[in-house]
Amino acid sequence: MIVIDNKLCDRCGCCVAVCEADCITVYEALIEIDADKCTGCKKCVWICPKDALVYKDKDVLD
Ligand code: SF4
Ligand code: SF4
After folding, report:
1. Most CB contacts within 10 A, which of 38, 42, 44, 56?
2. Ligand 2 pocket by C-beta < 6 Å: which residues?
3. CA 40 to ligand 2: nearest atom
């Protein structure tokens, strides 16, 4: 799953543009990722200019 640091994110929208699963929503003050739709492709992590997105294995979180 993708973990978002909304303090780093400036809502540029780059991650939304590359997400083929269409699961990222940008709001005025934060972004949200629908974990159920996310395929874990990590394209959003690679494209983010602010390093605001981090991929975490579910096992690590459990
Ligand atoms: S690419 Fe990064 S900085 Fe831009 S909206 Fe997405 S998470 Fe935020
Ligand atoms: S990992 Fe892929 S599917 Fe998941 S939010 Fe990022 S770009 Fe979208």
Report:
1. 44
2. 2, 18-19, 21, 23-24, 33, 38-44
3. 1
56 touches 5 (CB < 8 A):
no
Task: Return the ligand number nearest the Cα of 52.
Answer: 1
pLDDT in tens, 29-45: 999 999 999 999 999 99
By the 8 A CB rule, do 31 and 47 touch?
A: no
CATH class of residue range 2-53: alpha beta
Kindly report the pTM of this predicted structure: 0.91
